Amino acid sequence: MFNILVVDDSETMRAAIRKVVGMSGVPVGEFLEAGNGMEALAVLEDAWVDVILTDINMPEMNGIEFLKRVKAEEVYRNIPVIIITTEASQARMDEAEGLGASGYVKKPFLPETIKMILTDVLEKAYAQRMKEIPAEAAVESDEEMDF
Q: Which of 9, 74, 94, 113 is such that its CA lies 20 to 30 A from the CA of 84?
């Protein structure tokens, strides 16, 4: 089960994304929501999030600035961020990818598209975590043996 944070200034769009993710078959533990990047940062302080789906064009803190902040924080930087936007500019998408976005979906979208991208992003994130865990476990076991 994955906790998913949906960040979009449109309550209607957040509801549509929730519905489409639900239809996609991706196992969801909890949906968390925010209306902009500032609200999303507050949500991250209080909840475990496995993946973030964010719009780019929002008031107060847009998706690009939010992405920069997430990737700058040690505790959040490994959370996959998927951009969901009407933004047509390839330069904007390249910028998001360069800042660490794990993927993007253009609005309007189909459940199959969301499922494909979410599954791909979550599988990659899980594989990365599995690579990191043995190294951490080895360090811990060495420390335990140090009398």
A: 74
| Joined tokens for residue 44 | 């991250």
Residue 109 pLDDT greater than 90, yes or no: no
Residue 35 burial by CB count (10 A; 0-12/13-18/19+): exposed, middle or buried?
Answer: middle
The b/e string for 48-83 (b: 16+ C-beta within 10 A; e otherwise) is ebbbbbbbbebeebbbbbbbebbeeeeebeebbbbb
Going by pLDDT thresholds of 50, 70 and 90, the confidence category of residue 90 is confident
**Taking a C-beta distance cutoff of 8 angstroms, is the pair 63, 56 a contact?**
yes
Cα 38 to the center of its chain, rounded Å: 15
Residue 135 has pLDDT above 60, yes or no: no
- Global pTM? 0.82
What was the pLDDT predicted at 20?
Answer: 86
CA 61, CA 64: separation in Å to the nearest integer? 8
Q: Which long-range contacts (CB under 8 A, 24 or more apart) does 89-92 make?
A: 92/56, 92/64
Q: Give the Cα separation of 139 and 82 in Å (integer).
A: 32
